[in-house]
From TrEMBL:
Gene Ontology cellular component annotations, sorted alphabetically: plasma membrane
Name assigned to this protein: Peptide/nickel transport system permease protein/glutathione transport system permease protein
Pfam families: BPD_transp_1, BPD_transp_1_N
Entry keyword set: Cell membrane, Membrane, Transmembrane, Transmembrane helix, Transport
InterPro entries attached to this UniProt entry: BPD_transp_1_N, MetI-like, MetI-like_sf
PROSITE patterns according to UniProt: ABC_TM1
Native source species: Sinosporangium album
Start and end residues of each ABC transmembrane type-1 domain: 99-301
Amino acid sequence: MSAGRLHFVVGRLAQVFPVLAALLLIVVLLQQMMPGDPARVIAGPRATAEQVVQVRHELGLDRPIFEQFGRHVSNLLQGDLGTSNRTGIPITTIVGDRIGVTVWLLFGGLLVSTLLAMPAALLMALRPRSRGARICSRALTIIINCPPFWVGLMLASVLALGTGWLPVGGFGVDFGDRVRSMILPSLTIGLAVMPLLARSAAASLSQVLTADHVTTARSLGVSGWPLVRRHLLRNALPPAITLLAIQAAALLFGAVIVEQTFGLPGLGAEMITAASQRDFPVVQALTLIFGLAIIGINLLADLAVALLDPRTTWR
């Protein structure tokens, strides 16, 4: 890696630290803002006032907020996310058991959205006045207005219950079962992201088509897939990648809904269960993990755009 690129990457990483510090502070404040008394929940409804005070002291809830922040950061640096109030299981164990399901779902959703959005974007950009482009545009308008949970229910009713080809819920045991169980959830979350991605890519491609270098390439006889691969995609991908990064929060929120819809034992389903049962440490830990995921996705997208965009100056 050149010195310019290394400086660029270090600069981007330095910009992450203030955001990370703000996220950690929000996670600590989350326990203060949530309704109910965490110490009372842990101690139980029959606990005396003295027992509640003792639990609050053990949790450090009676200490100043910045002291709680420092203690939380210290525990995180040691790999300690805390313990579930509900089950007494270390949160690292809970995350380790469930994160694989969420990663499968997010990867499948991104794969589906990309495979569906790219052909639609190419059609609308290269043949904007064709009948297929008009049908595609109207279909995208309909899809973007459909709630993910409704799409999931419709897909389950038609493709699972109606035919019996695919499982309605669960994660499966072996690799084949897991792939089959992820088809409908991945379609659901992929369709939620695909319309915006397709329209963004189509708009970028339309702009690139009028660029001087594309006109020159066409005059030299370059056409078809070589024109798309060499001159269009490289210049049109950065805006689409940026949009995907912006949609990272929506993608994770969609994963929470889809996991509940299809009964997937992922982090999203655990978040809803923990929130409903006031399992504060789990809610805190999962909020931190989702926040770190969004920060990481945006950082990777920023670096990918810089690598793809030929106008990037590595300074």
